[in-house]
């Protein structure tokens, strides 16, 4: 890595650790494989959103040309959000693309991602299926996102449960002999209509 | 009493007068230099934009050269123009 990238990441590391947000356990970062170009980020789901209570893991790759080019960030934790791919975790956020500026930092990126969880941009989607649900049946979107949060982003016993969803997932797994994740995606993508979800797996 | 000064030695300190402590690009202090230089001072000067943001000249040049379309200030994203 270039001099400037290495030095900056080292500084940013202590900046994040010392920040208010980190003290309150809202964001954190750590090294992967002891390489400064490979980081793991964590953000907590903002209050009063379907992501509340969840901890979301992020894969952060620092390019050779950092900070002149943005870090490459994607969600490792599965999430149901219009601007994040439910399949790959790829993020659609302008500051990670053409709106990046060299004065931005890992800390500001993590805070921007938290802001994205609080306010989605369904007209600029990364996941068209989620975005359509967000626009057409917002209540269904909220329940689905909350369900995904409790399944993938929460540990412990305070998980939120929605028996209807659990039942349908079990049914679809039995009917179609698919694993739980595939059944969940099929149902989520079809507004939890068991029949439509079955058909989508057949086609 | 009459004092005769036979010799004297001047000592001075210098400091950049900037509205920030750190360069927003490399995050090093303005009293230090950019990561590619060894000595702070004339070798690694600061420059100001018309937006009043200030950076090491080596850092802002690298940023501007990495921008293909618009040349914007890395802080406020106004069009970058060097302050005369």
Observed structural traits:
heterodimer, A: 203 residues, alpha+beta, Ubiquitin Conjugating Enzyme, Helicase, Ruva Protein, domain 3, 2 domains, four-stranded antiparallel β-sheet, 8 helices, 4 strands, 13% strand, elongated, B: 84 residues, little secondary structure, Herpes Virus-1, two-stranded antiparallel sheet, 2 strands, 12% helix
The CATH superfamily of chain B appears as Zinc/RING finger domain, C3HC4 (zinc finger)
Structural class of chain A: alpha+beta
| Number of separate domains of chain A | 2
Q: Name the helicity range of chain A.
A: 40-55%
Task: Write down the domain tally of chain B.
Answer: 1
Distance between the termini of chain A: 47 Å
CATH architectural category of chain B: 2-Layer Sandwich
Percentage of β-strand residues of chain A: 5-15%
CATH topology of chain B: Herpes Virus-1
The main sheet of chain A comes to: 4 strands, antiparallel
Low-confidence stretches of chain B: none
Radius of gyration of chain B: 18 Å
Name of the CATH class of the largest domain in chain A: Alpha Beta
What characteristic shape of chain B results from the CA principal axes? elongated
Family (chain B): Belongs to the RING-box family.
GO molecular function, one term (chain B): ubiquitin protein ligase activity
Pfam family, one (chain B): zf-ANAPC11
InterPro entries (chain B): RING-box_E3_Ubiquitin_Ligase, RING-H2_APC11, Znf_RING, Znf_RING/FYVE/PHD
């Amino acid at each position: 890595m270039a001099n400037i990238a290495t030095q900056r990441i080292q500084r940013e590391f202590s900046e994040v650790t010392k920040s208010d947000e980190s003290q309150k356990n809202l964001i954190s970062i750590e090294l992967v494989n002891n390489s400064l170009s490979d980081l793991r980020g964590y953000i907590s789901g903002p209050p009063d959103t379907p992501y509340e209570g969840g901890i979301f893991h992020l894969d952060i790759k620092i390019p050779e040309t950092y900070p002149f080019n943005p870090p490459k960030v994607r969600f490792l934790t599965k999430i149901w959000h219009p601007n994040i791919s439910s399949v790959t975790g790829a993020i659609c956020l302008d500051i990670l693309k053409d709106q990046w500026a060299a004065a931005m930092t890992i800390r500001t990126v993590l805070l921007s991602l938290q802001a994205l969880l609080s306010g989605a941009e369904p007209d600029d989607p990364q996941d068209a299926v989620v975005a359509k649900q967000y626009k057409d049946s917002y209540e269904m979107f909220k329940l689905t996102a909350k369900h995904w949060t409790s399944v993938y982003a929460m540990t412990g016993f305070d998980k939120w449960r929605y028996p209807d969803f659990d039942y349908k997932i079990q049914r679809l797994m039995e009917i179609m002999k698919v694993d739980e994740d595939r059944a969940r995606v099929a149902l989520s993508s079809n507004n939890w209509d068991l029949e439509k979800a079955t058909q989508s797996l057949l086609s | 009493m009459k004092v005769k000064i036979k010799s004297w030695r001047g000592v001075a300190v210098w400091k950049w007068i900037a509205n920030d402590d750190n360069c927003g690009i490399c995050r090093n202090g303005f009293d230090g230099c950019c990561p590619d230089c060894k000595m702070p001072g004339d070798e690694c000067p600061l420059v100001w934009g018309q937006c009043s943001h200030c950076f090491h000249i080596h850092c802002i040049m690298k940023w501007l050269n990495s921008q293909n379309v618009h040349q914007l200030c890395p802080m406020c994203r106004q069009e970058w123009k060097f302050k005369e």
